[in-house]
Amino acid sequence: MVQDELSLKEKVALITGGGSGIGSGITQGLAEAGAAIACVYSRHAPTEMQRYVESLGGSFLPIQADVSQMEQLPQVMEQVLDRFGRLDILVNNAGICPRAPALEYTEAMWDQIIQLNEKAVFFLSQLAAKQFLKQGGGGRIINLASMMSYLGGFNTTAYTASKHAVMGLTRVLASEWGGYGITVNALAPGWIKTNLSAALVADPDRYNSVKARIPQGDWGTPDVFKGVAVLLASEAGRYINGATIPVDGGYLTK
User: Fold this and answer.
1) Which domains does the chain have, with CATH numbers?
2) Contact 161, 228 (CB under 8 A)
3) How many CB atoms neighbour CB 11 within 10 A?
4) Pseudo-torsion of CA 42, 147, 230, 232, nearest 10°?
5) Nearest CA among 206, 198, 192, 189 for reference residue 246
6) What is the C-alpha separation between 96 and 11, in angstroms, rounded?
7) Of 71, 67, 51, 68, residue with least CA distance to 14
8) Rounded to an integer, what is the distance from CA 116 to the centroid of its chain?
């Protein structure tokens, strides 16, 4: 039955930045489907998310780490395995998008964005894949791409470059690891109301110009990621591999 294939009971999910923004919607969806949650945060403890997951009867492990620091990635994995003994799902959600005109971009800005949005995504995925192989039975990796995986954007040079890279990484890892039962897919969010987009949402002209281009009539909210995340993480999505799925209310159609 498809309901059974969508269940994530007895699965363990590691989500970077899973306590807020788009990550919060993904975390809620996976937890509601039955997964135990390991949530990486950098500054603000995901207290409300932990409370929510535990209210469902689920397990929740908060992990404070900066996943842009390569030496911390094995430590994150170690904490997951110490608590749960296994890993089944990785969601590479953490990312940043400082804005500046291309003529004013500094090397420091470029390096910071590429480090977190691209390099960390690959090396945490590599760690997860090695654990999947050690366990046997495959696994699921979900990356966060963007509309800027398809478009150029404006004042987002390094971010756009990093999100094009995420789509490429998703494809090559799906190609290499599919034979091991590991699927690698990406979600490409459109215009979503989060802290990251708060300044744009607060600008009536910008907000309404974007809204006018969205066929479904408004910006999205983090909860729209629940269902598609569960699909990609579950047995129901086992034959989806290497895809980047827009979650944009139809924005790309225009």
Assistant:
1) 2-192+222-246 (3.40.50.720)
2) no
3) 21
4) -110
5) 189
6) 28
7) 67
8) 12
pTM of the model: 0.97
Q: How far apart are the first and last CA of the chain?
A: 37
Give CA–CA dist 146/160, Å, rounded: 8
* Residue with tokens 């420091």, as numbered in its chain: 108
* 59 within 8 A of 37, measured Cβ to Cβ: yes
In 3D space, the residue among 165, 8, 14, 19 whose CA is nearest the CA of residue 84 turns out to be 14
The alpha carbon of residue 85 and the mean position of all alpha carbons in its chain are separated, in whole angstroms, by 22
pLDDT in tens, 62-114: 999 999 999 999 999 999 999 999 999 999 999 999 999 999 999 999 999 99
- Beta strands at 60-64 and 182-189: parallel, antiparallel or unpaired: unpaired
Longest dimension (CA), the chain: 55
Task: Count the neighbouring beta carbons within 10 Å of the beta carbon of residue 140.
Answer: 28
Residues taking part in catalysis: 159
Q: Hey, which bits of the chain come out as E strands?
A: 12-16, 36-41, 60-64, 89-92, 139-144, 182-189, 244-247
Q: Please check whether residue 213 is in contact with residue 251, taking contact to mean a CB–CB distance below 8 angstroms.
A: yes
Give the residue among 70, 43, 31 at the shortest CA–CA distance from 13: 31
Q: DSSP for 91-128, please give it.
A: EE-------B-GGG--HHHHHHHHIIIIIHHHHHHHHH
